[in-house]
Structures are given as structure tokens and as C-alpha cells.
Amino acid sequence: MAQQKYLHQRPIQNPFSSSHLSNSSLSNRPISLLSRNGLLLLLLALLVILGVFLPWAGSPLFPFPTNTLSPSQSKWRDYSLAQAVQFAAKNGTVIVCAVSYAYLPFLSNWLISVSRQKHQDKVLVIAEDYATLYKVNERWPGHAVLIPPAFDSQTAHKFGSQGFFNFTARRPQHLLQIVELGYSVMYNDVDMVWLQDPFKYLEGRHDAYFMDDMTAIKPLDHSHDLPPPGKKGRPYICSCMIFLRPTSGAKLLMRKWIEELQDQPWSKAKKANDQPGFNWALMKTAHQVDLYLLPQAAFPTGGLYFKNKTWVKETKGKHVIIHNNYIVGFEKKIKRFRDYGLWLVDDHALESPLGKLE
């Protein structure tokens, strides 16, 4: 009891007094992280760490917005689709693609081929994450826009995943908004390469133009009507390349595509993507929309171009856009492009509006 009474009466030292912080007391007493000195040192360390790393926020390592954005980055966060389309469109037409950060090399490769056909100035990149938005506009101001919400760039590009479905399911919404603004729009996936000018093949004044995804060889003078349904009850058209005019028919097609994606969402049992919904929409609106199937020789699917050497030789000089599909995997696509001399960024990176990506 006497000892307990003494403890209650013992005067409390000021931890910030000179005597308490004497050399002898600091050298003889270990500093606990729970003590006031320990907390002060921990706070100081945190301030140093934040001082070092916060200036990097907004870089690819920090793909989401922070309160430390530079003025130029803050400008692009408020950039609307209407403003971006007005900036990029030429003669009432804009070319769009949707890209996450992992696919920047493919974007650059595609842009080189587009630049060779003198159409790069009308390209608008719909960025799916903030890292892509800032990177493209840093290199090529005004040519990228982000339509919230932003996606996780690491999950949005894995084919068959829910992230991939969420990423691609927004495509008809973007295209609908653009045609409602009064512009014609061409959509491309960025795992494509242009060998010729595709606009020369947009004959007539149809509402919507698209390419077949079947590998069966068609005659050179094949019909441009929507192909008949296949085994799954729908045609097999690729949603990778679409051209729309700002007509009521094109708007109807996009709205129907949106409805189909809402009616058939992604699930673990049915790992959907956007293409079946596009085909159902085409079939269900065919009697109301003026549709045009592009020539197979000019717009072949990857399953034909990369796998049928005889057909490629027979149609030499007719190929316009090559799509690197019918293969899954980032590295596999790059290798295939390299094998066919279509990975242009190796030797021609400076032809891209983005320049050489580090």
C-alpha cells in the first residue's frame, strides 16, 4: 500500500522538458513505438515517405485520381465526351477505340497503321482508367477521354472475365451517345492493323457497317446483307469493327444492343461478352435498320487471315484491316503480329502520335 501511495504522489515529468530529453535519458532508455517519442518519430517517418511518393500520384503506378493531380491532369478529368468528339471529329466523323493501360502498346501499334492512311487526327481514345487518360493526353493532348466510372486496368483486359464484360458492355453506350451528337463514328479494337484506307469501302449511305467473324470462305462477290443465323440461332458478326452514321436506324441498333446486354449479363456459369448481344441486336432489328456486311477479302477475321495461307495468297492486295483475334493472350497476340510483320512498334514507334512508349 505504501508503494502504491508513493506512485500516486510521484510528480509527472514533462516529456518535452530539457531534463527529460537529456542525453543520459535518451541513451539509457529504449524508445517504444507506443511512447510519445516513438509516435513522434513514426509521424516524422510517415511525412518523409509521403513527401517522396505523393508527387508520383497520377502516374501509371497510381491509376486512380488523387488530390495531388497536376493542373494538366485535372483538366482531363473534367473533359466530356461531347467536348472530346467535337475536338477530334473531322468532316463529321470520328474514329474511336476503348483502351485500358495494359493495351497501350497495341494502341500505339494500331495508331501507326492509322497514321499511314492519314486518318490519325480524327481518332479519339476512350480511356478506361486514369493512367491511360493522362498518358495519352500527355503525349497527344485532347485525344483521350474517360467516361466514369473508371475500371481496374488489371482486370478489364482478361477475356472471359466479368471485368472484360463490364469493359466491353459500355461500347454501345459510347457509340449511341456519339451518333446522338450527330457524328458518324467508326469503332475499332486496337488489336487491329490497317493496310489500306477502310473509308473507301463504306459504300452507299447505310446505317451500319460491320465485318463477318466466320472463317468459311465467301465468294469475292458475296452478298452484303446480314448473314443467316448459325447454330446458335444468330449470325456471327464481329463487334470489333463497326461504322455508324447518325441515323435513326443506327440509334435503334445501339439501343437494342444495350437491351440485349442487360438481358444477358455476365455470370460465372455464362461468361458472356458483348458480341453475342450485338448479333442478337442485328438480327432483331434487320427489318428496320439498313445494314451492310463489308467484303470478307478486305476485312477478314483473324481465324482466316492467320490460318489459311492459300486464301491469303489468292486475295493478296485486297486486305484492308487485319484483326488479331481467334487467339487469346497478350503475349501470343504480339508474337503473332511479329511473325507476320505487323508489330510495327518495334521499328516504327515514332510514327505513332504517342511516340515511343517507355
TrEMBL record:
Residues of the Nucleotide-diphospho-sugar transferase domain:
119-337
For membrane topology, the record states: Single-pass type II membrane protein
This protein's record includes keyword Ribosomal protein: no
Note whether Membrane occurs among the keywords.
yes
Q: Where are the transmembrane segments?
A: 39-58, 93-112
Q: Name one GO biological process term.
A: cell wall organization
Per UniProt, which keywords does this protein have?
A: Cell wall biogenesis/degradation, Glycosyltransferase, Golgi apparatus, Membrane, Signal-anchor, Transferase, Transmembrane, Transmembrane helix
Q: What is the annotated localization of this protein?
A: Golgi apparatus membrane
Its EC number is 2.4.2.-
GO MF, any single term: glycosyltransferase activity
Q: Show the segment(s) annotated as Disordered.
A: 1-22
Its main subcellular localisation, reduced to a broad class, is Golgi
Q: Which InterPro entries match?
A: Nucl-diP-sugar_transferase, Nucleotide-diphossugar_trans, UDP-D-xylose:L-fucose_XylT
Origin: domain of life = Eukaryota
Q: Name one GO cellular component term.
A: Golgi membrane
Classification via Pfam families: Nucleotid_trans
Q: Which PANTHER family match?
A: UDP-D-XYLOSE:L-FUCOSE ALPHA-1,3-D-XYLOSYLTRANSFERASE-RELATED
**Family to which this protein belongs:** Belongs to the glycosyltransferase 77 family.
Name under which the protein is recorded: Glycosyltransferase
Which source organism?
A: Brassica napus
